[in-house]
Amino acid sequence: MKSTGKTTISVKKKASSREEKQSFLRKYRLALLVLVPFAVYLNVVTLQYTCLDDTTFILDNREYNQNASNLFTSFERGLFQPADKSQYDYYRPLFLVDMIVEYHIFGENATGYHVTNLLFHILSVVLLFLFFKKIKLDETTSLILALLFAVHPALSQAVAWIPGRNDMMLMIFLLAGMLFTIDFAQLRRWQDFVLQMLFFLLALFTKETAIIIPILAFFLLTRVFRIPWKQLYPLGIGWAMAIFFWFFMESTVKQSGNKLPFREMLESGMSRMPAFLQYLGKIFLPVNLSVHPQIDEISIIWGLLSVGMIIALLIFSKSYFKPLTILGIGWFLLFLLPVLAVPRTFNDLVYEHRLYIPMVGILLLLSQTFLFSGKLKGIYRDVLFGTIILLFGAMSFSRVGYFKNPLAYWNRAVVETPQNAYSKMMTATWVKDDALQEKLFREAYAIDSTMKDINLYLGKVSFKNKNYADAERHLKKELAISKVKIPDNYFFLGQIAYEQKDYKNARKFMSEGLRISGNNNPSAYFLIAQACFFENLLDSAAINLLKVIELDPADSQANNNLVLLYMQLGQKDKAVAQIQRMKANGVKTSPELLKMVGTE
User: Fold this and answer.
1) Nearest to residue 403, comparing CAs of 155, 172, 220, 84?
2) What Cα–Cα distance (Å) separates residue 26 from each residue in 178, 215, 363, 594?
3) How far apart are CA 425 and CA 81, in angstroms?
4) What is the dihedral of CA 48, 50, 53, 58, to 10 degrees?
5) What pLDDT, on a 0 to 100 scale, did the predictor assign at position 380?
6) Are the C-beta atoms of residues 558 and 550 closer than 8 Å to each other?
7) Is 207 inside a domain boundary?
8) Distance between CA atoms of 31 and 349, rounded to whole angstroms?
9) Which conformational region is residue 254 in: left (phi greater than 0), alpha (psi within -120 to 50 degrees), or beta?
10) 322 burial type by CB count under 10 A (0-12 exposed, 13-18 middle, 19+ buried)
11) How many CB atoms sit inside 10 A of residue 13's CB?
């Protein structure tokens, strides 16, 4: 009897201890879910741009972002190509809408956009915790899994890189929609139906992978909550209507680049299959992370080890047929599936921000293993996952620094993927040492001599070194391989022709560069004027000098040369008038010139 009494007291103490622990978690769970990711990612407020798409959407798109009417135009264009429909593009209007709204709030200050990313991540973490609880995971399990998500280093790119917010926006709409979908299926409240429809539409207009949501939601409701499928017909009709509306809007954009030949898509998908293993390895063993990961440079060994770990966990836990296990595997695979559809000619990279949503599937799978089923109890589980959370948090905190500015970002890209030609080229554009810059450009060229812009950069370097033959060779090669005409390419070819006294081609290249750039380069007009002068095309020289002065009225050399040219043409009246304009504009004139014109 005494033994029984002691046992009863011991059980009561353990139960009391568990209750106190649960009470503590309930009391401080929200603080943990907010403060942990806030502490890990607080340094994002010090980050600048990386010059990987972020400057495209904010700085290059300033005119687009300044116009509030483009909130509606964003639903009528592709993400990257509003005018050129010949290239592969995405239809993600809500991202463009977000850029317009934030541009009106933050302008071009990168800090504001980074703060938004941090807030989006914290909201995602809180919603994930609520979702885990909604699908009947216990409080502690839900909290641990949400905190693992909050600090996982594979997700640091999504938080620290401004365009990574697109995945966070999708996550917010996905989880909010799931919560309202479950509520409608259980409680049949029509306000829940309307809200889940709204969030599903928002998800579709955020990223095309949202089309997967109904499949996962249907499985969740029928297998986890055991709701008869016949009761879900309102949801099915609503989802079908939302997808039809989204598809209609997307099709009106007429993105011809999206209509890839099936064979090309299949070949591209097969070549990108290793990405599944690479991404899996980054989740379980995040030792091969990269800010700019090229698919051919990321080892699949860690992924194979991760597959072995998953199999061992499922077998030991006997959880391979549990609904949440199946849902987790499906969630991971389906949300990564679109990675296979991206043609390698368009994007040969396996960015880690794409793991932001698939990561949830792995967490669901883990929730069904012995790690959370009760066999790993109390203090042991707390110490294990507490250590992992601290380690992952430290790794994520450290990785934030890799996104500090363009040089930090591209330097890190070279360290992590040394055979990535683009990373070397971009690093070279930001280094200040001329010798190192040329070395990096030539290393990038050795890896991929047909990469966009590499010949242009090498042409500029050779021109600076007065190696005109090498500069001309690279610049003409850039013209031959580039699908987009770049004004600088023509301007430098024009300068090379001028240095070689080939004035006809100098005028030809400069004129083409001006046409492409919008006729707003005074230096190009000045060089054309000089070429015309040496060809004795004095009237044309005068016309081009007037263009220079029109663009830059304070250009002293152009103003003085025009006076001299008028005198050479015997047009003294025009020379006098030009002197008067120079005085009115505050442009200095030499006493010799005034004496020559007779206006001293």
Assistant:
1) 155
2) 23, 32, 21, 87
3) 24
4) 20
5) 82
6) no
7) yes
8) 36
9) left
10) buried
11) 10
Q: Tell the residue number behind the tokens 């509030």, with chain if given.
A: 68
What Rg value do the Cα atoms of the chain yield, rounded?
31
d(CA 6, CA 84): 79
Domain annotation covers residue 416: no
DSSP secondary structure, 86-111, as one string: TS-----HHHHHHHHHHHHHHTT-HH
Answer for the pair 243, 208: CB distance below 8 angstroms, yes or no: no
Q: Is residue 497 part of a domain?
A: no
Report residue 33 CA to chain centroid gap.
26
3-class DSSP state of 449 = coil
The pLDDT, as a whole number, for residue 261 is: 55
Provide the residue range defining the domain that includes 149: 34-406
In angstroms, rounded to a whole number, what is the distance separating the alpha carbons of residues 194 and 41? 34
pTM: 0.87
Q: How far is CA 266 from CA 204, 271, 341, 536, in A?
A: 24, 9, 8, 60
* Beta strand ranges found along 248-308 (DSSP E): none
- Range list of β-strands (E), 509-558: none
Total domain count, the chain: 1
The rounded distance, in Å, linking the Cα atoms of 72 and 100 is 11
What pLDDT is recorded for position 86? 45
Q: What span, in angstroms and rounded, lies between the C-alpha atoms of 80 and 100? A: 14
Q: Evaluate the CA torsion angle 553, 557, 563, 569 in order and state its sign.
A: negative
Pick out the chain residues at pLDDT < 50.
Answer: 1-2, 11, 84, 86, 256-258
**What pLDDT is recorded for position 594?**
81
Q: Is residue 361 part of a domain?
A: yes
Q: Which long-range contacts (CB under 8 A, 24 or more apart) does 316-319 make?
A: 316/369, 316/370, 317/368, 317/369, 317/370, 317/371, 317/373, 317/375, 319/368, 319/369, 319/373
Residue-wise pLDDT tens digits, 344-355 = 556 678 899 999
* Tens digit of each residue's pLDDT (9 = 90 or more) over 56-95: 999 999 999 999 999 999 998 988 876 545 455 789 999 9
Q: Side chain identity at 135, as an amino acid letter?
A: I
Helix (H) or strand (E) holding 151: helix 139-151
Q: Which amino acid is at 250?
A: E
> How many whole angstroms separate alpha carbon 287 and alpha carbon 533?
63
Structure-token match 């999504």, residue found: 158
Tell me the residue type at 22.
Q
Residue 60: the pLDDT is 92
Block residue for tokens 């509003």: 82
Q: Which amino acid is at 44?
A: V
Question: What is the pLDDT at residue 484?
Answer: 80
